[in-house]
Each structure stands twice: as C-alpha cells, then as structure tokens.
From TrEMBL:
Entry-linked Pfam families: DeoC
Descriptive protein name: Tagatose 1,6-diphosphate aldolase
Reaction catalysis annotation: D-tagatofuranose 1,6-bisphosphate = D-glyceraldehyde 3-phosphate + dihydroxyacetone phosphate
The organism's place on the tree of life at top rank: Bacteria
Enzyme Commission (EC) number: 4.1.2.40
Signal peptide: none
Organism phylogeny: Bacteria, Bacillati, Bacillota, Bacilli, Lactobacillales
Record field: transmembrane: none
Family: Belongs to the aldolase LacD family.
Length: 331
C-alpha cells in the first residue's frame, strides 16, 4: 500500500466525496475545445470565448462534482467561480504533444511549475502522457524519466500526482479503428502496470476503459463485435487487479450514456475503481447553443441537461470504492 503525507491526504479529501470517491469534472481541453467552439459558431474562436465557456461549465456544474480539472492557460478564471466545496486539479502539460520529434513526447507549460500550481490553489498536479508500451525503449525511457521528474516535483510540493495515460499504437494511425480496438486492452493494461511502479510517484492513475465500447456486443451499432460484454467485464476486472494505486476512468470522448454503461459494467465486474474524471461526455452538447446562439443558451443547457448528465454519472458511481482503501497516511 502506498503511503502519503497528511498534507497530500488533505488535498485528496478536497478532491473527493466524503465517501472517498472522486467525481471530478474535466474542462482542461484547449486545442480541441477551440476547434469545437469555432465549428459551432462557424467562425474562429477567440480566447475570450474559450475562457467564458470554461467559466460557464465551472459555475453551472461544479455544485454537483467533487472536483474540477482545468488548465492554467485558459481555465484560471473558471476556478474562481467554482463551487466552494469543489476541489481543484490543474494541468501541467501543454495541449497535445511535441510534434517536433517522433514518439508523441510530452511538453510542459513553459510558465508553470508544481509550486505555482500549489500557489494557484491547486489540490493536485495532473500530467498527461501518451504511451505505446510496444514502442521503442529509447522513446519510452524518455517518457518514463519525464514522469519521474513530475512525480518528484509533486512530492516536493506535497501535492497528489494524477497521471493521465492515453495509449496509442505507433503503427496504427486511427485510434478509433477496429484494428486498434483489438490491441487496446493489452496497451492499457501494460501501461497501467508500468506507471504503478513506486519510482514514478503517482498518487492516482487516470486511465482509459480497456476497450472501445463501440466494438462491444450490444453497443457496436454497425461495427463488428470485438468483445462480448462478458469479455469486456473480464477486462475491467483484470485492469482492477493490475494496480494497487487508486485509479479513475476518463470518458475519452464517448457519450454520457456510453460512459455510464461502461461504469456499470465495471461495477458488475467487481472492479475496485475509485471514481471518474469526466469531460466531454458531460458538457460537449452545450458547445453548440453557447457558440451559435448565446452564453445564456449554453448555460441553460448546462443547468438542465448538463446537470442531469453529472447526476446520472454520480448515481452510477455508487459502485466506486474509496481511495482511502489504497493509500495509507503517514503518522
């Protein structure tokens, strides 16, 4: 069992419900959000629009979330209007990844640091790494060292480190394809096993569901079935057994209904997951009325449908376990 300091435990309590379940809202999208807002408005999105949308999501939805994840580039104004009982995670990485070299290398925000995240009121550092466990060791060794440095910085500032890992295959360009769906589970499980090692200093893993639900029996639509529902549940159980760390699910662009179905499968599988960090599945449909009509229209959607989405998700989280079962507080 991983041991954490009393200061880190206090931050973890700020980020979770009284039951120790993390029900977090993610609005740290930058490049993708800018594009979605521009497409909805049929004109380029300026920085003010991005900031205002994040503020709307924060003020309307944080009363129903245990914490919010945002970025320090556009999201700090949103942190000022969050619910008083809502904890705060701040991203440390730039959006996307470094495109100047192969391997989807991470890149940090130039004017950010663990200390600055702490001084801005952050309860945790969130760091994202793209990872293909089957890629060359030269590339993966650099990523592993990168996470070690961020973990050491989080420890020095007595902040939890939430490590988000997104898997890919260097030889499969389309992550939504059936070809990738067939290898995704192994990628997710290998990656979780690697970053559960103590040298990385990870407090909570933010991970993918180990399958693409659009290729699961009953949810596949026109796609071929890659996994039956029973096979999908077995993968969720195997995922739970591969790490001793608290872990939470990311929504990865699926709909609210699909994400809730995934969470229910995890509960049925007996997986010891500890919550969610849900983004687009909760608020994405608000973009169109916000950008194409008015801020008022966007807020109306958030205060009704967005609220319903997050309340439905919270209801589905009844099967989640407390992070306190996996972390020991030092005396």
């Amino acid at each position: 069992m991983k041991t954490i300091s009393a200061a880190v435990a206090k931050h973890m309590a700020n980020l979770s419900t009284t039951d120790g379940v993390i029900s977090a809202l993610a609005i740290d999208q930058r490049g993708s959000l800018k594009k979605m807002l521009a497409d909805a408005a049929n004109k380029p999105a300026d920085e003010t629009t991005i900031v205002d949308f994040k503020k709307a999501v924060s003020s309307e939805l944080t009363p129903y979330a245990s914490s919010i994840l945002t970025d320090p580039e556009y999201g700090l104004p949103a942190t000022k209007v969050r619910d008083k009982n809502c904890g705060l995670l701040l991203s440390y990485e730039k959006t996307g990844y470094d495109t100047t070299e192969p391997g989807r290398m991470p890149d940090l925000i130039a004017n950010q640091s663990g200390l600055r995240i702490k001084n801005e009121g952050g309860d945790a550092i969130k760091f994202l790494v793209y990872y293909d466990p089957d890629e060359g060791q030269e590339i993966n060794d650099k990523k592993q060292a990168f996470v070690e440095r961020v973990g050491a910085e989080a420890k020095a500032n007595e902040l939890p480190l939430f490590l988000e890992v997104l898997t890919y295959d260097a030889n499969i360009p389309d992550a939504k394809s059936e070809e990738f769906a067939k290898v995704k589970a192994d990628k997710v499980l290998q990656t979780m096993k690697e970053f559960s090692k103590p040298e990385y200093g990870v407090t909570v893993l933010k991970v993918e569901i180990p399958f693409n639900i659009k290729f699961v029996e009953g949810f596949n639509g026109d796609n071929n079935v890659v996994y039956t529902q029973e096979e999908a549940k077995n993968l969720l159980k195997k995922q739970s057994e591969i790490t001793d760390l608290p872990y939470i699910f990311l929504s990865a662009g699926v709909t609210s209904e699909e994400f809730i179905a995934e969470i229910k499968m995890a509960e049925e599988a007996g997986a010891d997951f500890n919550g969610v960090l849900c983004g687009r599945a909760t608020w994405k449909p608000a973009i169109k009325p916000f950008a194409a009509e008015s801020e008022e229209a966007g807020r109306k959607w958030l205060s009704t449908h967005g609220k319903e989405n997050i309340e439905n998700l919270n209801e589905a989280l009844k099967g989640a376990k407390s992070w306190r079962d996996k972390l020991e507080v030092a005396e």
